[in-house]
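Lecture notes, unit on protein representations.

Consider one protein chain, 593 amino acids long.
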Amino acid sequence: MNNLPSKVIILGSSALKIGEAGEFDYSGSQAIKALKEEGVYTILVNPNIATIQTSEHLADQVYFLPVTPYFVEQIIQKEKPDGILLGFGGQTALNCGLALDKSGVLVRYGVKVLGTPVEAIRNTEDRELFVTKLRQIDVKTPRSFAVTNLDEAVARAYEIGFPVMIRIAFALGGLGSGLCRDEAEVRDLAQKALTYANQILVEEYLLGWKEIEYEIVRDQYDNCLSVCNMENFDPMGIHTGESIVVAPSQTLSNKEYHKLREIAIRTVRHLGIIGECNIQYALDPHSEDYRVIEINARLSRSSALASKATGYPLAHVAAKLALGYGLIDIPNSITRVTKASFEPALDYIVVKIPRWDLKKFKQVSKRIGSGMKSVGEVMAIGRKFEEALQKGLRMLETGASGLVLNRQKTADDFLQELSEPTDQRVFAVPEAIKSGMSIDEIHELSHIDKWFLYKIQNIVDIERKLLTVGEQRCPRDLIEEAKQFGFSDEQIARALGTDEFKIRELRKAYGLFPRVKQIDTLAAEYPAQTNYLYLTYNGGEDDIGFLDRNSVMVLGGGAYRIGSSVEFDWCCVNSVKTLAELNYQTIMVNYNP
């Protein structure tokens, strides 16, 4: 391709923090690889020594310096790059790039922002500009006012009507945001929020509305597609990083799905975004009314989930688009048989569950809301929602064997958990069902969509069946059904009052084994060459055969938690790379998206 930049600076996300973790190491690493494939000299700015992207075999030059305007200007002055990538280092990189543009540094040194223009980034980050731009194309946003002082915030809250949401522009992980039910709460939260930013937003609170996300990619030729859409288990008011997220969405009608998809594509085109973009909606469950809540004109936590959930290499594609390629020019590196212009199709369901470490901090409230507290997340894959949910809860490694049949009681006061959610909210739903509450009553308290509640009721129904039979009388059909709904051997054993290993032997005697399935982005429409696999009891055959050669399994670190994070990704990646060089077949086992 002609007119490629010869030297490009990539801004990393710096230190890991709540709201910015390993997903940006992933996206930055993919961007570096994509640029090097085109012969572009890459310069990385990232002081985080534990990341994969700072390894010596990736970028041509690595600066372990703060991702701030002062230090990045010094690097630009020395290296004289042609271009800069802002969308692969999270909010930290984006804010730094905006500051460099505003101060005139980029123009002074002739550095071009690759991909989404700075003006488009600013239009998505500045809440007042954001609302103005979307009104130009008749796209709805929450009724809101940008304010700069405490008295104005209170006045606008009364004008909108309580409850209201407080939000901050240019913020990470819902920093400084929250729900306010009266004037006192507005004054308290607005005062705190104004210490983080000069401008805050007071907006209407959409009680009980669903939260939906779309991942969109667009090239400079105006080709545009939806890579993945996702649905939050929890309603509006809980940050998407704090909520269980399901991909693809399960409760939207065909009309709702295509309406939101069309609005997302129209919005991305109007803003002029090039590359990848995340759009978050609020959707009224009783009508087709909607609001666009937020747009991230960069790779995000949701982008990493969407990429792993679909098998579509979002970060790699976004980097190529930033260089000027069209979607039809870029091969899908996962399938090797389609182009990036091919919209993914899924024949499975993915569930993302956050992990909190709140017990380590005695004074911290366990309530969850519009600000992030979770430090990690897991991704579970299955052919049923129930299967993926239970697998994901085990993956958290917080002591849960699944949604039910746990050693310890997981929800102390399920009524309060349903109305005022904490990190244990999902466990309150089966407790409420077992207490005799109806699905309608649980929905009224929690505003969780009834589809999810009925799926949880399915799990409770199987638990009841298991509790009525003994080990000697447990039929094959019941064990098979339990496995298909995500029950572990340990859960089944606890219900039958026996040992986990006895259940395992019984299951094997019945000939019940999981099947290996591929994530191919194509729902098996074309033969795929992927090595991206999951196990399920909801399958009749394996998608791949087993190779008889020297193999080494590498166990990943799982969900990030305090004391274990991206440094173990670095260890695993380098282990796999070394083993491959020694001609071993490598098998990576991990569930961190």
